[in-house]
Specification:
2 domains; 2 strands
Length: 125
């Protein structure tokens, strides 16, 4: 899997890295037990600071997506046996409510939001 970041984006680089890894897990490109690039090599490949990659990996660890094995590196974690251990429906609804509110504030319509949500949900199949 190729991980990229957009240095011109307003989104913090560590969140871009986090999102790229989560997208790889969701798409099946990254499977449980797969090793992630070392902090040093990923930082060098992307031309970013080591601490940025460390922060992304720590965030992924805290969210349960990866396990960190010290100097042996970071690996994709097994999926939780209990789906409720991941993002529950209440957290999903809260995140969607926040997105809908921000979308409406920027001039978006209910119809456009629902259409985009439907397209995004197609990735669940």
């Amino acid at each position: 899997m190729v991980i990229t970041v957009d240095k011109l984006s307003d989104a913090p680089l560590y969140l871009q890295l986090r999102d790229a890894v989560i997208a790889g897990i969701a798409s099946g490109e990254l499977r449980p037990g797969d090793a992630l690039p070392s902090v040093r090599s990923l930082a060098e490949d992307l031309g970013i600071n080591l601490h940025t990659v460390n922060k992304a990996y720590a965030t992924l660890r805290d969210e349960g997506y990866v396990i960190m094995l010290g100097r042996r590196g970071a690996y994709v974690a097994d999926a939780p046996a209990d789906p409720a251990a991941g993002m529950g429906e209440a957290a999903l609804e809260a995140a969607l409510t926040k997105l809908a509110t921000e979308f409406k504030a920027s001039g978006g319509t209910r119809h456009a939001f629902l259409a985009a949500a439907k397209r995004a949900a197609q990735n669940l199949d």
